[in-house]
Amino acid sequence: RKEVEQDPGPFNVPEGATVAFNCTYSNSASQSFFWYRQDCRKEPKLLMSVYSSGNEDGRFTAQLNRASQYISLLIRDSKLSDSATYLCVVNTAVAAGNKLTFGGGTRVLVKP
Amino acid sequence: NAGVTQTPKFQVLKTGQSMTLQCAQDMNHNSMYWYRQDPGMGLRLIYYSASEGTTDKGEVPNGYNVSRLNKREFSLRLESAAPSQTSVYFCASRERYSYNEQFFGPGTRLTVL
C-alpha cells in the first residue's frame, strides 16, 4: 500500500459546481498535512495547510480525519482557473528531520 | 528575491553521459530537497539535506549523488545517465523542523536517449 494515495481523476467539473476529493495516508504518526496545486508542467505551489479542526480559505475547504486517516479538499463555485492537479502532502517526523510524502495527485478539469 | 532557482531548464543526454543539476535558494532555508516526477506519479524524493553539511537518501537515490555546497546551493549529479532517469526534476527548500511550506524551483526536464 502506498503511504499516500489519491484518486488520479480526472474530475470533470462544470463551472460553478462543487467538487471534493480525498487523500488517504497510512502512517498514523503523521503530524501535518498540506494541499499543493500543480499546473501543467509547472512546479507545485502550496494551496493550503490542513489543520485538525478543518480550515477554509475562500472557496477552498480542507479537512482532516485522523481516525480514518484521510484529508479532504472541497472546492466551491469552481472556476476555469481551478483546473490543475492537486497534490496531497503528508509530513512525518523522522530521525533526520521531517519527511514529506506526496500523493500522486488528483486532476481536476473545470469546464464551461 | 528569486526563491528557488534551477539550471538548466531542459537537457538531453545520451546514455552514459554525466551531468550536474544546479539548485540555489535565497530564503536562508536550512533544508533542501531533490525530487523527480514521472507521468502519473507523485513527486519521489531522491536526496535531501536537512541542514548544511548533511545529506541523506530519499526514496529513489540509486544512480544519483548530491552535494550541499553551502547553505544556498544543493546540486544533483547523474554520473552515468540511463533512459530510466528521463524525468522532471524539482529542487525544493523549506525551514527545518517547521510546518512551513516547501518552495519549489521551476524544474529541469531531462531526457536520456
Could you characterize the architecture of this molecule?
The complex is a heterodimer of chains A (112) and B (113). Chain A is mostly beta strands and 112 residues long. Chain A contains no helices and 11 strands. In chain A, the strands form 2 sheets. In chain A, strands 2, 4, 5, 9, 10 and 11 form a 6-stranded mixed beta sheet that branches. In chain A, a hairpin with a 2-residue loop joins β9 and β10 (97-102). The radius of gyration of chain A is 14 Å and the shape is globular. Chain B starts with a strand and ends with a strand. In chain B, 35% of the residues are buried. The interface between A and B is medium-sized, with 25 and 25 residues.
What descriptors fit this protein?
heterodimer, A: 112 residues, mainly beta, six-stranded mixed sheet, five-stranded antiparallel sheet, 58% strand, B: 113 residues, seven-stranded mixed sheet, 11 strands, globular
